[in-house]
Design a protein that fits this description.
CATH superfamily: 6-pyruvoyl tetrahydropterin synthase/QueD
CATH class: Alpha Beta
Distance between the termini: 19 Å
Shape: elongated
Largest sheet: 7 strands, mixed
Strand content: 35-45%
Low-confidence stretches: none
Number of domains: 1
Number of strands: 10
Length: 163
């Protein structure tokens, strides 16, 4: 008999505070601002013969490590077609619609995303949790959902499924 369950992870340490701006078009963007983001993960997996799925502490650690990487930083979307990004030894310069923004390198994180949005952040978490395909098979994981919240009642959900 095949049994499965959903493990839900929504721990206190699964959060990050980051700055960003959303780009709406080649001439319109939000002002620089930040959020206290929270991360929720659900993992659909088969229950094994020992009455458990897997050691989900492995996934809690990965989520919290990614949250630490994103914490207290300004996130810049490296793949945006509307931004030009230059760097020197100390600064990152961003050009958008004839505006130039300067940041200390230590204060920014250049991510391979098109826009600094909840949609992209939730995808990054799913990509991190699903990169080891052998592990997913070994743990008999069927589906992983990640929700990233920018505040109460506002989130994006990204899902990976083996089916």
């Amino acid at each position: 008999m095949n049994r499965n369950t959903i493990i839900e992870l929504f721990k206190e340490g699964m959060k990050f505070s980051a700055g960003h701006f959303t780009i709406f078009s080649e001439t319109e963007r939000e002002n620089l601002h930040g959020h206290n983001f929270n991360v929720y993960v659900s993992i659909n997996a088969d229950i094994l013969e020992n009455g458990m799925c897997f050691d989900y502490g492995i996934y809690k650690d990965r989520i919290m490590n990614l949250c630490k990487k994103f914490n207290e930083i300004f996130i810049i979307p490296r793949l945006s077609k509307y931004l030009k990004i230059e760097e020197d030894e100390k600064y990152v310069y961003i050009y958008f619609n004839n505006e130039k923004m300067s940041f200390l390198k230590r204060d920014v994180l250049l991510l391979d995303i098109e826009n600094a949005t909840l949609e992209e952040f939730s995808r990054i978490f799913v990509d991190e949790l699903t990169k080891n395909k052998q592990e997913l098979e070994l743990f008999r994981i069927n589906e992983i959902n990640v929700k990233v919240f920018s505040g109460p009642g506002q989130c994006a959900n990204y899902k990976w499924s083996k089916f």
